[in-house]
Design a protein that fits this description.
The structure holds two protein chains of two kinds. Chain A is mainly alpha-helical. Chain A has a domain of 221 residues. In chain A, 74% of the residues lie in helices and 1% in strands. Chain A contains 23 helices and two strands. Chain A is globular, with a radius of gyration of 23 Å. The two termini of chain A are 41 Å apart. Chain B is mainly α. Among the domains of chain B are: 85 residues, no CATH class; 209 residues, no CATH class. Chain B has a two-stranded antiparallel sheet with strand order 1-2. The longest helix of chain B has 33 residues. The two termini of chain B are 41 Å apart. The chains are: A mainly alpha, B mainly alpha. At the A-B interface, helix 20, helix 21 and helix 23 of A face helix 10 and helix 11 of B.
C-alpha cells in the first residue's frame, strides 16, 4: 500500500480549504436550505413551543444578519442609521412572524439569505480567484450579480410571506427550493467550465420547475411547469450538444481553453460558430431571449406571483451573467471569430426587445404583459452585452447595473400585482380601473414602477437605460466605426412603443373610474405588503437622482 | 440662488400639497398660490437684476472655476502661496487646459501628457477645468448670468448647471407668471374643485418646476431630466381633468413627445462621447461642436430636429396639438400653448443652431425650415378658419403663429432672430390669454364651444369682451399690440435674409391676412350680433377671472408700445448666437 506523500496530497487537494472559504456564501445558502427543510419537518404545521422558540431565535438572527449586512455595505455607519435599520428589521421581521403561523419558516430562509449577502459583501474587495481547478471564479462581475440575486431572493421571501395561497402549505419546502435555486444561480454567474455551466443551469431549472408548480391542484401552474420542463429539456439538450462539440475540438471543458482555441484563428471556425450558437440556445432560454422566449409568458402567467417575480429577476440576471462570460470567451480577440458576435448579439437584442414589446401591447393579463415586458427588457440588457467591449467596459457594467435596477422596478411591479390580486382576486389590467382612488399608495407605487420600466427620469429605470444607450453609442468596432448606434435607435423606438402598454395600466388606475355606482371599499392595509413595496419604491426613486455611487460600484466589474 | 429657488419652490410645494389631506382644499390652494407667487417673485428679481447688468456671467464663473480647479489640482490652499514646484505644475496643467478647441475634439491628450496627468492625480481636475475653460470661451457665455454650478453625478461628469440669458429669461418669467395666473384661474373651475384637487395642484406645481428647469438648465443631462419631468404631470393633467376625449389626447401627447425625446437622448449621448474629455456642459460643447465632422452635424441635427419639431409643433408633427389643447383643462391648455410649445423653439435656439451650425445653416435645412414654416403659417391659419370649435380654433392659431418663429430663425438676421424669439414670448402671452378667454365662457357658463351657437356675448358681458378683444387683436397682429412687433420684425428679417429669397416674405404675408380673417370672424360670431336668450343669465367676468386676464392684456399693450422692454435683454444673447453660427452659412 502506497502512502500518498504530503506534497502529492497538497497537489490533489489543491487549494481546497481556501476554495471552500471562497464559496462560503454558497455553503451558507445550502445550509440554510437544509435548515429550513429540517426545521419545517420537525416543527411544521404546529405552532407548538418548538415553533415559538425557533421563531424568536430566527427573529433575533435576522435582525443581527441585517445589521451585519449594513456593516459590510457601509462600514462606520452612524449609530442613528444602524438603529433605524435594526428597528426596521425588528418591525418587518415581526410582521412576517405575525402574518402567518408559519412565518418563521420564511424568516429562517431570510436569515440564510442575509447571511450569504453579508459574506458576499465582505469578500467583495478580494482579488478575483479561480476555484476548484478552474470550475468557478469569484470576480467582481460575479460578486455584483450575486448581490442582485440575493436581494431578489430576499424580496421574494418577503413577497411570498404576504402571498395568501402560500400560507400553511409546505412553506418549508418552498423556501428550501428557493434557496437552492439561488445557490444554483450563484454557481451560474461564476461558472467557467462547461460541466459547471451545465450542472448549475440544471440545478436552477429543476428548482424552478418545482417552484412554478407550487400550488398543488392549480392546473395552470402545473401546465406552466410542464411547458417549462419541455422547453428546458430541449434547450439544455441543444446546449450540451454545443458544449460537447467544444470538448471535441479542444479536449477540455474549460472556458479559458476555449477562449485560447477561438482566438487562435482556426480552420474549424465554422464548427466553432455552430457550437457557439448551440450553446447560445441554452443561455437564451434561461434569459427568455427571442427566439427562445416562448415559455416565458405561459410560465410567468401560470406560476404563483412571487415565483414569477423571482424568476423574471434572478433567473434572467444569472442567464445574462453566464451569457456575457461566454460572449467574452467566444469573441476573445479581434481576429479569432468567424462570426461578428457584437452584431449577432445586437440583432438578437433588437429582435428580443421588439418582439417582446409588440407582444406586450395586446395583453390583457398584467402578469402576462409583464412577462412580455421582461422579454423586452432582456433585449435592452443584451444591448450592454453586445457592447461588452465598449471603452472602459461600459457595456457589461451598464448591463449589470440595469439588472439591479430591473430587479427593483420589476419586483416592485409584481409585488403590487400580488397585493391587488390578493384584494380583488384578479390580475387583469381592467381590474386596475380606478385603483388610484381606492388604494392611492399602491397605485402611486405601481405608477412609479411602470414609469421606471418605461425608462423615464427621475427614476432608476432611466439611469439604467441611459447607461445602456451610452454604451451602445460609444461602442466602436475594429475599424473605428460606431457600429451599435442603430441598436440604440431601435431601443429608443422600442421605448416609445412600450409607453403604450405601461401607460395603459397607469391610465386605468388614475384616468378611468371603476364601475358606475359601485364603489369598492378602500383596500385594507396589508402592512407588510406595503412595506415591501415601499422598500423597492424608495431605491427606484433614489437611484434615479443619486446613482453615482452604485453606478461606480457597477463600473469596475472585470471578468476573471 | 434665485434660479434654484424659482425652480424648486414649486417642487417643494408640490410635495407639501401631496402630503396634505385631500379635504383641505383651501390650504392646498393657498399653498399653491403662495408657491407660484414666490417663484414669480424670484423670476422677477432675476429679470430686474439681469436688466441692471448684475449677476456673474457664465464666462466669469467658468474662468474663476478654472483657477480654483487648477489650484486644487496642485494642492494650493488659501493663505500659503504656491511653491515653485506647484506653480510650475499648475502652469503646465494650465497649458493643457487652455488649449484652443481643435478638430481633435476638446483637446485629446498625447500619451505622455495623460501619463503625466495620471502621475499628478489630476485627471479629474483636468476634465472639469477643461470643460469650464471651453465654456468660458464661448460668446454666449458672456450673456448667461446667475450661474449656479454644483457637481451632481461626478462619475459621469453630470453637473447641476443653471443660468439664464436674454433668450431664456423672458420664458422663465412668463412661466412663473402664467403659473400664478393658472392657479388663480383654477380656483373657480368646478371640475378641479370637485375631483382630486390635491392631485391637480400638486401636478401643476411639479409641471412648473420642470418648465422653469428646462429653460435654465445648461447641462444636457439636467436639461433632459427637466424635459421629461414636464411630460408626466402634463399627461395626468390632461388625462384626469380633461374633456371627453382626454384619454386619447393624453396618450397621444405622451407618445409623440417621448419619441422625440428619446431621439434627443441619443443625440445628447453622441455629443457627450464626441468630446474628449466627455462632457454634458452645453456651453462647453458649443466651443467644440463646430469642429465635429459634417456627418456628425447632420445626424445630430436630425435627431434634435425631431425632438424639438414635435414640441413646437412643426407640420406634419402637429397632430397631437389640437387634441391635447382641446381636451386639456383651461389652465393646462394655457400652459401648453404658452410655455410647452416654446420648449421646442427654445431648443432650436439653444441647442440645434449652436451645436450643429454646419447642418443648421446648410441649404437643405434652411429650405426645410422655410417650407415647413410657411406651411405652419398658412396651413395652420386655414385649418383654424375651418373650425367651429372655439378652442380648436385657438389651438390651430398656435400652429400658425409658430410658423413665424421658424421663418425668423431661418432668416439668421438680427431682426429675424429677435423677431422669432419675441414671437415666442408674445405668443406665450396672447395664446395663453385666448385659452383663458375661451375657458371663461366654456368652463362655468356656456359649457359648449360651438362658434356658430354663440353671438352677442358683448351685450351680456361687456368687460369680459373688452379684455378678450385685446387678446384677439394681439394675436391678429394689430399695431400697438405685441403680436405686431414680432411679426414685423420677422418679416423685416426675412426680407434682409441671405439664406432665402424675397418670395418667402410675399408668401408669408398671406398668412397675416388669413390670421386676420379667422380671428375677426371668430370675434364676430362670438361677441357681436344679437344676443341669444340662453346667454342672458351670464354673469360678467369674476374677480379671479379678471386677475388672470388683466395682467396678460397689460403685457400685450406694454410690449406693443414698448417692445424694447423685452428686446433689450434678448438682443445681445441672440446676436451672439448669430455670430457663432453664421460663419458656417454655405459651408
Amino acid at each position: 500500500m502506497e502512502w500518498i506523500s504530503a506534497g502529492r496530497f497538497a497537489e490533489l487537494s489543491h487549494g481546497f480549504p481556501g476554495d471552500l472559504v471562497a464559496i462560503a456564501p454558497e455553503v451558507a445558502l445550502a445550509t440554510a436550505a437544509c435548515a429550513v427543510l429540517l426545521l419545517d419537518l420537525g416543527l411544521g404545521g404546529t405552532r407548538g413551543r418548538g415553533g415559538g422558540v425557533v421563531a424568536a431565535l430566527a427573529w433575533v438572527a435576522a435582525v443581527v444578519a441585517l445589521h451585519r449586512v449594513l456593516g459590510a455595505v457601509w462600514p462606520g455607519a452612524p449609530l442613528a442609521a444602524q438603529l433605524a435599520l435594526d428597528l426596521g428589521g425588528v418591525l418587518v421581521f415581526g410582521l412576517m412572524l405575525a402574518g402567518a403561523p408559519n412565518g418563521w419558516v420564511g424568516l429562517v430562509a431570510l436569515v440564510g439569505t442575509l447571511y450569504a449577502l453579508e459574506l458576499v459583501l465582505a469578500r467583495s474587495g478580494d482579488p478575483a480567484a479561480s476555484l476548484f481547478r478552474a470550475m468557478l471564479v469569484t470576480d467582481r462581475f460575479a460578486t455584483f450579480f450575486k448581490v442582485v440575486l440575493l436581494l431578489g431572493t430576499a424580496a421574494t421571501i418577503l413577497a411570498s410571506s404576504v402571498y395568501r395561497p402560500m400560507e400553511d402549505r409546505r412553506v418549508g419546502e418552498f423556501h428550501s427550493v428557493l434557496l437552492l435555486a439561488t445557490m444554483g444561480m450563484f454557481l451560474m454567474v461564476g461558472a467557467t467550465d462547461a460541466v459547471m455551466v451545465y450542472m448549475s443551469i440544471e440545478l436552477v431549472s429543476i428548482a424552478s420547475f418545482v417552484l412554478v408548480a407550487w400550488p398543488r391542484g392549480d392546473r395552470s401552474a402545473a401546465e406552466a411547469s410542464l411547458k417549462y420542463i419541455v422547453y428546458s429539456a430541449v434547450a439544455s439538450g441543444v446546449m450540451v450538444y454545443g458544449l460537447s462539440l467544444f470538448y471535441g475540438m479542444t479536449g477540455s471543458t474549460n472556458l479559458a481553453d476555449l477562449t485560447r482555441f477561438t482566438t487562435r484563428g482556426q480552420p474549424e471556425a465554422g464548427v466553432v460558430a455552430i457550437a457557439s450558437f448551440l450553446v447560445l440556445a441554452g443561455f437564451g432560454y434561461k434569459m427568455a431571449m427571442v427566439p427562445f422566449h416562448f415559455w416565458a409568458p405561459d410560465v410567468y402567467q401560470g406560476a404563483p406571483t412571487p415565483v414569477t417575480a423571482y424568476l423574471s429577476v434572478t433567473s434572467k440576471a444569472a442567464g445574462v451573467a453566464i451569457f456575457a462570460r461566454f460572449v467574452h470567451a467566444f469573441t476573445g480577440g479581434p481576429s479569432g471569430s468567424l462570426v461578428d458576435w457584437t452584431q449577432v448579439v445586437a440583432v438578437l437584442a433588437a429582435l428580443t426587445m421588439t418582439l417582446g414589446n409588440l407582444a406586450a401591447l395586446w395583453q390583457g393579463n398584467l402578469k402576462r404583459m409583464l412577462a412580455y415586458s421582461s422579454v423586452a427588457h432582456v433585449g435592452y440588457v443584451l444591448m450592454g452585452v453586445a457592447a461588452w467591449d465598449a471603452p472602459q467596459g461600459a457595456g457589461l457594467n451598464a448591463a449589470a447595473f440595469y439588472l439591479l435596477v430591473y430587479f427593483l422596478m420589476n419586483m416592485g411591479a409584481f409585488a403590487v400585482v400580488l397585493l391587488v390580486a390578493d384584494q380583488v382576486g384578479s390580475e387583469e389590467v381592467e381590474t386596475y380601473r380606478g385603483l388610484g382612488s381606492r388604494a392611492p399608495f399602491t397605485a402611486l407605487a405601481m405608477s412609479v414602477f411602470l414609469i421606471a420600466l418605461i425608462g423615464l427620469p427621475p427614476t432608476a429605470g432611466f439611469v439604467g437605460k441611459f447607461q445602456l444607450f451610452a454604451a451602445a453609442i460609444d461602442h466602436v468596432n475594429g475599424v473605428g466605426r460606431h457600429d451599435l448606434v442603430w441598436l440604440a435607435v431601435v431601443a429608443g423606438v422600442n421605448t416609445a412603443i412600450s409607453v403604450y402598454y405601461y401607460m395603459r395600466v397607469v391610465k386605468n388606475m388614475w384616468l378611468e373610474h371603476g364601475e358606475e355606482g359601485v364603489r369598492e371599499p378602500a383596500m385594507g392595509p396589508p402592512i407588510l405588503g406595503h412595506l415591501t413595496v415601499l422598500m423597492l419604491l424608495v431605491p427606484v426613486l433614489w437611484l434615479g437622482v443619486f446613482f453615482g455611487r452604485v453606478a461606480q460600484a457597477a463600473r469596475s466589474l472585470s471578468l476573471y | 440662488m434665485l434660479i434654484t429657488l424659482s425652480t424648486f419652490i414649486p417642487l417643494a410645494a408640490a410635495v407639501l400639497v401631496a402630503l396634505l389631506p385631500g379635504q383641505a382644499r383651501r390650504t392646498i390652494k393657498a399653498v399653491s398660490l403662495v408657491a407660484t407667487l414666490a417663484a414669480f417673485l424670484c423670476a422677477t428679481l432675476i429679470l430686474r437684476d439681469y436688466y441692471a447688468g448684475r449677476g456673474e456671467t457664465l464666462a466669469e464663473a467658468s474662468r474663476a472655476r478654472v483657477e480654483v480647479l487648477l489650484n486644487e489640482a496642485v494642492g494650493v490652499t488659501g493663505e500659503a502661496g504656491p511653491t515653485v514646484e506647484q506653480r510650475e505644475r499648475r502652469e503646465w496643467l494650465r497649458s493643457l487646459v487652455e488649449r484652443p478647441a481643435g478638430p481633435e475634439g476638446a483637446g485629446g491628450l498625447a500619451a505622455d501628457e495623460s501619463a503625466r496627468l495620471a502621475e499628478f492625480k489630476a485627471a479629474d481636475s483636468y476634465r472639469l477645468a477643461r470643460e469650464a475653460f471651453l465654456a468660458s470661451t464661448v460668446e454666449q457665455a458672456r450673456h448667461l448670468r446667475f450661474t449656479e454650478w454644483a457637481p451632481w453625478i461626478a462619475q459621469f461628469g453630470i453637473h447641476y448647471l443653471m443660468a439664464v440669458d436674454g433668450l431664456s429669461l423672458p420664458l422663465v418669467w412668463l412661466t412663473a407668471l402664467l403659473s400664478v395666473l393658472c392657479v388663480v384661474y383654477s380656483f373657480g373651475v368646478t371640475k378641479v374643485n370637485e375631483t382630486g384637487t390635491k392631485g391637480y395642484y400638486s401636478l401643476f406645481l411639479l409641471l412648473e418646476t420642470g418648465l422653469i428647469g428646462v429653460f435654465c438648465a445648461l447641462d444636457f443631462f439636467l436639461f433632459y431630466v427637466f424635459w421629461e419631468i414636464v411630460l408626466l404631470p402634463m399627461y395626468f393633467l390632461i388625462g384626469v381633468w380633461g374633456g371627453p376625449r382626454r384619454i386619447y389626447a393624453a396618450i397621444k401627447f405622451f407618445i409623440y413627445t417621448l419619441v422625440g425625446s428619446v431621439l434627443m437622448l441619443l443625440a445628447m449621448l453622441a455629443f457627450y462621447f464626441a468630446v474628449e474629455p466627455h462632457s454634458f456642459n452645453v456651453i462647453a460643447l458649443m466651443a467644440v461642436a463646430p469642429h465635429f465632422p459634417r456627418d456628425f452635424h447632420k445626424w445630430a441635427f436630425l435627431a434634435l430636429f425631431f425632438a424639438f419639431a414635435i414640441k413646437v409643433p412643426i407640420f406634419p408633427f402637429h397632430t397631437w396639438l389640437p387634441d391635447a389643447h382641446v381636451e386639456a383643462p383651461t389652465a393646462v391648455s394655457a400652459v401648453l400653448a404658452g410655455i410647452l410649445l416654446k420648449m421646442g423653439g427654445y431648443g432650436f435656439f439653444r441647442f440645434s443652431w449652436p451645436l450643429c451650425p454646419v447642418a443648421a445653416l446648410s441649404d437643405t435645412w434652411i429650405g426645410v425650415f422655410v417650407v415647413l414654416g410657411l406651411v405652419n403659417l398658412i396651413y395652420g391659419a386655414l385649418v383654424a378658419m375651418a373650425q367651429t370649435d372655439f378652442k380648436k380654433l385657438v389651438a390651430y392659431s398656435s400652429v400658425s403663429h409658430m410658423g413665424y418663429v421658424l421663418l425668423g430663425l431661418a432668416a439668421m438676421t438680427p431682426a429675424g432672430v429677435n423677431g422669432a424669439a419675441l414671437q415666442m414670448f408674445n405668443h406665450g402671452v396672447s395664446s395663453a390669454m385666448l385659452f383663458f378667454v375661451v375657458g371663461i365662457i366654456y368652463d362655468e357658463r356656456a359649457h359648449h364651444r360651438d362658434l356658430n351657437d354663440f353671438g352677442g356675448i358683448f351685450q351680456q358681458m361687456p368687460y369680459y369682451t373688452g379684455i378678450a378683444i385685446v387678446g384677439f387683436f394681439a394675436s391678429l397682429g394689430l399695431p400697438g399690440l405685441n403680436g405686431f412687433i414680432s411679426e414685423v420684425l420677422v418679416f423685416l428679417g426675412a426680407y434682409e435674409a441671405r439664406t432665402y429669397g424675397h418670395w418667402v416674405v410675399f408668401v408669408g404675408v398671406t398668412g397675416v391676412v388669413l390670421t386676420a380673417a379667422y380671428i375677426l370672424w371668430a370675434v364676430q360670431r362670438v361677441y357681436l350680433g344679437p344676443l341669444q336668450d340662453k346667454y342672458r343669465g351670464f354673469a360678467d367676468i369674476r374677480w379671479h377671472e379678471s386677475v388672470t386676464l388683466v395682467p396678460l392684456a397689460f403685457l400685450c399693450v406694454l410690449v406693443g408700445v414698448w417692445p424694447d422692454s423685452v428686446l433689450r435683454g434678448m438682443r445681445a444673447s441672440l446676436e451672439s448666437m448669430i455670430s457663432m453660427t453664421w460663419p458656417f452659412f454655405g459651408s
